[in-house]
From TrEMBL:
The keyword Transmembrane helix applies. It comes from Thioalkalivibrio nitratireducens (strain DSM 14787 / UNIQEM 213 / ALEN2). The chain crosses the membrane at residues 26-48, 284-309, 337-359, 371-393. It is a multi-pass membrane protein. Pfam families: FtsX, MacB_PCD. Signal peptide: none annotated. The lineage of its organism: Bacteria, Pseudomonadati, Pseudomonadota, Gammaproteobacteria, Chromatiales. Keywords: ATP-binding, Cell membrane, Membrane, Nucleotide-binding, Transmembrane, Transmembrane helix. This is Macrolide export ATP-binding/permease protein MacB. The keyword Nucleotide-binding applies.
């Protein structure tokens, strides 16, 4: 050994690496692959969680959604009397009778082809009231929003999402033009600002928004709406408003309810929280599976160190003969094992950083390599070296000086 203390241990460990480059290199590579897998999965998982929570927040984490049917009575989802029981009048009653309600928007939505000349696009036609744009924080970039006068008159007008306007009109102005949806002519009165929120299938960029009265009478031919969106005045008022809505709905159709709820009031904030927890759980599960490769790498470290002990019995005997005690021998070999895993950890971090940069170009979200996770994985990597290096180190420290010196 070249001296005493940590510098001497590191010096001897580096000498060992240089002496057995191939064997040490493969051991370091095994640890690096394990660290790369764990860090990359955690970064992608954390990025996915942030992305999903952001997307749900865009959908309206402060909103309540009222839909017909209730899981406590699964048959309610197949009862047409229940499915067609929500109306625009319900929206008006909720807004006018329940304290703490800021906005209510009924929604009647259907898919179809929108045409402008020879240009076509598949889009969702959202029949709703003027409250919808404010409730979803949608801003009109060009033209005007829907108005109460449009709703009362059942006017054939619409506001287009930014992407839909671009696909139909390109660089030409859309406001004032007429598009066709299921054979009906609709005048474009406004275009929304782009939101880039289409990942969860509820994006507004490719939708068009028209008065619900026009959609019901002229296109869908129905009187009901599919769901109601309710915005409380504050997050603190949400629970109270939800309870008041449930009470209203219980008394709305007593003949259908048979004493039980036939509607569902969904808190979008709880969905955002649940989505975040599920994504985090899946991320840690995958990372735990990937961590198995780190353990396998640790077994490789133990094999290398056992071989090293067998090859250096004579050296161990000489060191014991000149005064080194068992503890110093043990620290020397544990230090060498920890150095192997630490180098593997740093190399794995470099691999992970490159992978995350590459995946960020292909995924809709950005992988997040958090400093706390990096430190945790490096410490875990060093701990793997210490754990799997202990047995070879203990074996080396247990050799008696005479036995070691006689070893050939």
């Amino acid at each position: 050994m070249s001296g005493s203390g940590i510098p001497a241990v590191l010096t001897d460990a580096m000498a060992l690496l240089r002496e057995h480059k191939t064997r040490s290199g493969l051991t370091i590579l095994g640890i690096a692959v394990g660290v790369w897998a764990v860090v990359t999965l955690l970064a992608i998982g954390f990025g996915a969680r942030a992305y999903i929570e952001g997307q749900v927040a865009v959908l309206g984490s402060d909103l309540l959604i009222v839909t017909p049917g209730n899981v406590q009575d699964p048959t309610s989802f197949f009862n047409p009397l229940i499915a067609e029981s929500l109306t625009v009048r319900d929206a008006e009653r909720l807004r006018n009778s329940i304290p703490g309600v800021l906005r209510v928007a009924p929604v009647s939505q259907l898919q179809g082809e929108v045409r402008y000349g020879d240009r076509r696009a598949v889009a969702s036609l959202v029949g709703t009231t003027p409250d919808y744009l404010g409730l979803r924080d949608l801003r009109v970039d060009i033209g005007r929003p829907l108005t109460a006068a449009d709703e009362r008159a059942g006017a054939p007008v619409a506001v287009l999402g930014a992407e839909l306007a671009e696909r139909l009109f390109g660089n030409r102005p859309a406001v004032g033009q007429t598009v066709r949806f299921q054979g009906q002519s609709v005048e474009v009165v406004g275009v929304l600002s782009r939101r880039d929120d289409a990942a969860l299938g509820q994006g507004q960029d490719s939708d068009l928004f028209a008065p619900v009265s026009f959609v019901q009478r002229s296109i869908a031919g129905v009187r009901h709406v599919q769901y109601l969106m309710v915005q409380p005045v504050s997050r603190e008022a949400k629970d109270e408003v939800a309870l008041a809505i449930e009470l209203y709905l219980l008394t709305k159709n007593t003949a259908l309810s048979h004493g039980g709820p036939i509607y569902t009031v969904t808190d979008m904030g709880q969905i955002a929280s649940l989505a975040g927890r599920l994504t985090a759980a899946m991320t840690w599960t995958l990372a735990s599976i990937a961590a198995v490769s780190l353990v396998v790498g640790g077994i490789g470290v133990m094999n290398v160190m056992l071989a090293s002990v067998s090859e250096r019995v004579g050296e161990i005997g000489i060191r014991r003969a000149v005064g080194a005690n068992a503890g110093q021998i043990r620290i020397q070999f544990i230090g060498e094992a920890a150095l192997l895993t630490l180098l593997g950890g740093f190399l794995g971090m470099l691999f992970a950083a490159g992978s995350i940069v590459l995946l960020n170009q292909m995924l809709p979200w950005q992988g997040q390599m958090e400093s706390g996770v990096v430190l945790l994985v490096l410490l875990f990597s060093a701990a793997i070296g210490g754990f799997f290096g202990y047995y070879p180190a203990h074996k080396a420290a247990s050799l008696s000086p005479m036995e070691a010196l006689r070893y050939d």
